[in-house]
Design goal:
Blueprint: E1 27-29, E2 33-38, H1 48-63, E3 66-71, H2 79-87, H3 89-102, H4 104-108
Parallel strand pairs: 2-3
Antiparallel strand pairs: 1-2
């Protein structure tokens, strides 16, 4: 939660924890994996996939473990597309690269 508290929503200058996108109940920790279920700000949140990518990237970088990130069932109109992208290494890596190049990834992590 300490790391997630330092992640800001891409559209608002607020922590994803403070916004209720991720709560302690949404986090499951195992020996070699962290699982996060997040709730986008609305069912049509245009940044839903970006939020998922940022959560996954920052947790894996900071904790050195695999992060499984998924949208809370029924919370986003593109839930299946977002979850597929987060679990497809090539698609995920492509989005990470775009976020790094645009500077958005760096702007969202205030740690």
């Amino acid at each position: 939660m300490r790391i997630l508290k330092k992640l800001n929503d891409p559209e608002y200058p607020m922590s994803i924890v403070d916004m209720g996108i991720v709560t302690e109940d949404d986090v499951s920790i195992e020996e070699d994996k962290v699982t996060i279920t997040f709730t986008p700000t609305s069912p049509v949140c245009p940044m839903g996939s970006i939020i998922g990518v940022i959560i996954k990237k920052v947790l894996e970088d900071k904790l050195g473990v695999r992060a499984e990130v998924k949208v809370r069932p029924g919370s986003h109109i593109n839930e299946e597309l977002i979850n597929n992208m987060l679990n497809d290494k090539a698609k995920y890596d492509q989005v990470v690269k775009q976020l790094e190049q645009s500077g958005l990834l760096e702007r969202c992590y205030v740690g």
